[in-house]
């Protein structure tokens, strides 16, 4: 009996041992399997995360992730670049953005779980983005949106977009509309005033007065037409028509001659002198002749307009230099004060009335057209002025603006000096 019991218990012990060994093996196997699965999961997560980061880094806007504790958890490359050297990860909102106007909408989006968008302008000194790429005043759009995710922690994704250029364009457009309306209102009010007078009883029978009123009205009507015409040219140049300039070769001297012919009556009336100084009188240019005529017309007309009372000499010239083609219009008139020089190419900018100028003659758009037309041809324009000595508008064009020379069809068709003394 005893030996059989012993055998049985030995058998049981062996079976139990085997079972334990098997169990242990299975356990080891299972934990290996779990570890493998965990590793796989971790590596899949890392891949997903790096794909997500790559995607977020490919965004064109700075993007940030803020957690429920109001700390910055992630910034894409553009987001990081706004802060140059600063370490911003894991820092509280106010330490990152410094400005309440940026923090408040983010806090509101976190608290109320709603999207919040706001636009703000920052002066460079107070800007939290210590980046030299954005000097001066900048405008930003802050767009904070809660992220709908299954995790318990809620996040807000924030896009902070630099809208300075759009804001500037919009501002320029608004100013243009405001200035244009203002410029048009004055002559319109004058015309309406004279019309009212003419419609008063008996006014039409006084023919001399009626004629005088009509002439004044015509003058202001012409002014309105000129403003509208100039505005259309600017708008055509700005709306990309510059990309479709009608570029053809033309003789610069012929273009100058057209301009002088159009202004001949004023030149004669003022007793002004117009001289030509071209290193190559046969020079042919590649460009849109319509705009070049406009450029030279505005420059010569300005010299005449600003100097009705002096012995004015205007020189129009050109020369081919190392760096390209130079064209200039210079006069010996009253000039432009140094303080005004940086602004005169702005739309509707006029120098405070010159002493001799009794009324406003220009539209304030002439030089703006000059600059835009030259830009469209890939050139630059500059001005220097020593009042009473020389006011010089100088245009520099790339050499590609010079066309191949060709003999003149009519060699007699040369420029004549326009001068009362010639
Ligand atoms: P405007 O139509 O009034 O002439 P512009 O844009 O052509 O407008 O010129 C802007 C201002 O620059 C003019 O109002 C004038 O005061 C000044 N200006 C331009 N050219 C000359 C010049 N040759 N001599 C003196 N002042 C000039």
Task: Describe this entry's structure for a reader.
The chain has four domains: 20-55; 63-162, 2-Layer Sandwich (Beta-Lactamase); 169-238, Signal transduction histidine kinase, dimerisation/phosphotransfer (DHp) domain (Helix Hairpins); 248-403, Histidine kinase-like ATPase, C-terminal domain (Heat Shock Protein 90), CATH 3.30.565.10. The protein has helices at residues 2-57, 77-81, 93-97, 100-112, 164-199, 207-238, 252-262, 264-270, 289-306, 366-376, and strands at 63-66, 72-75, 116-122, 138-147, 155-162, 248-251, 273-278, 284-287, 313-321, 324-331, 380-386, 390-397. Helix 7 (252-262) crosses helix 9 and helix 9 (289-306) packs antiparallel against helix 10 (366-376). It has ten helices and twelve strands. The model is unreliable at 354-358 (pLDDT under 50). It has 422 residues and is an alpha+beta fold. It starts with a helix and ends in a 25-residue tail after the last strand. The strands form three sheets. The chain has a five-stranded antiparallel beta sheet, with helices on both faces. It has a five-stranded mixed beta sheet with strand order 7-9-10-12-11, with helices on one face. It has a two-stranded antiparallel sheet with strand order 6-8. The structure holds adenosine-5'-diphosphate (ADP). Adenosine-5'-diphosphate binds at residues 298, 302-303, 305-306, 331, 333-336, 344, 349-351, 362-368, 391.
Architecture blueprint of SSEs:
Elements: H1 2-57, E1 63-66, E2 72-75, H2 77-81, H3 93-97, H4 100-112, E3 116-122, E4 138-147, E5 155-162, H5 164-199, H6 207-238, E6 248-251, H7 252-262, H8 264-270, E7 273-278, E8 284-287, H9 289-306, E9 313-321, E10 324-331, H10 366-376, E11 380-386, E12 390-397
Parallel strand pairs: 7-9
Antiparallel strand pairs: 1-2, 1-5, 3-4, 4-5, 6-8, 9-10, 10-12, 11-12
Helix pairs in contact: 5-6, 6-10, 7-9, 9-10
The protein binds adenosine-5'-diphosphate.
């Amino acid at each position: 009996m005893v030996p059989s019991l012993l055998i049985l218990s030995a058998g049981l012990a062996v079976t139990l041992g085997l079972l334990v060994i098997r169990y242990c093996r299975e356990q080891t196997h299972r934990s290996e399997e779990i570890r493998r699965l965990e590793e796989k999961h971790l590596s899949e997560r890392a891949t997903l995360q790096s794909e997500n980061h790559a995607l977020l880094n490919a965004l064109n806007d700075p993007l940030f992730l803020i957690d429920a504790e109001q700390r910055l958890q992630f910034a894409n490359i553009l987001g990081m670049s706004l802060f140059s050297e600063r370490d911003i990860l894991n820092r509280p909102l106010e330490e990152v953005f410094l400005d309440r106007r940026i923090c408040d909408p983010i806090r509101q989006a976190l608290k109320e779980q709603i999207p919040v968008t706001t636009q703000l302008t920052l002066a460079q000194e107070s800007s939290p983005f210590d980046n030299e790429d954005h000097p001066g005043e900048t405008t930003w759009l802050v767009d904070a949106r809660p992220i709908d995710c299954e995790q318990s922690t809620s996040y807000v994704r924030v896009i902070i977009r630099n809208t300075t250029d759009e804001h500037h364009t919009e501002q320029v457009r608004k100013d243009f509309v405001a200035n244009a309306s203002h410029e048009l209102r004055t002559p319109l009010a004058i015309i309406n005033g004279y019309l009212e007078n003419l419609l008063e009883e008996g006014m039409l029978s006084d023919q001399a007065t009626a004629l005088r009123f009509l002439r004044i009205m015509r003058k202001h009507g012409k002014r309105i037409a000129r403003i509208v015409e100039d505005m259309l040219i600017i708008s055509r140049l700005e709306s990309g028509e510059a990309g479709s300039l009608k570029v053809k070769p033309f003789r610069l001297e012929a273009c100058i001659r057209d301009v002088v012919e159009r202004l001949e009556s004023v030149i004669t009336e003022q007793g002004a002198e117009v001289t030509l100084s071209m290193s190559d009188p046969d020079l042919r240019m590649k460009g849109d002749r319509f705009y070049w005529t406009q450029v030279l017309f505005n420059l010569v007309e300005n010299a005449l307009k600003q100097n009705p009372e002096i012995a004015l000499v205007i020189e129009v010239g050109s020369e081919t230099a190392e760096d390209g083609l130079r064209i200039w219009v210079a006069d010996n008139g009253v000039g432009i004060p140094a303080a005004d020089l940086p602004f005169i190419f702005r739309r509707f900018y006029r120098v405070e009335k010159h002493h001799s100028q009794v009324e406003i003659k220009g539209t304030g758009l002439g030089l703006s057209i000059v600059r835009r037309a030259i830009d469209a041809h890939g050139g630059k324009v500059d001005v220097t002025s020593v009042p009473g000595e020389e006011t010089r508008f100088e245009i520099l064009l790339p050499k590609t603006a010079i066309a191949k020379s060709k003999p003149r069809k009519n060699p007699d068709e040369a420029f004549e000096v326009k001068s009362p003394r010639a």
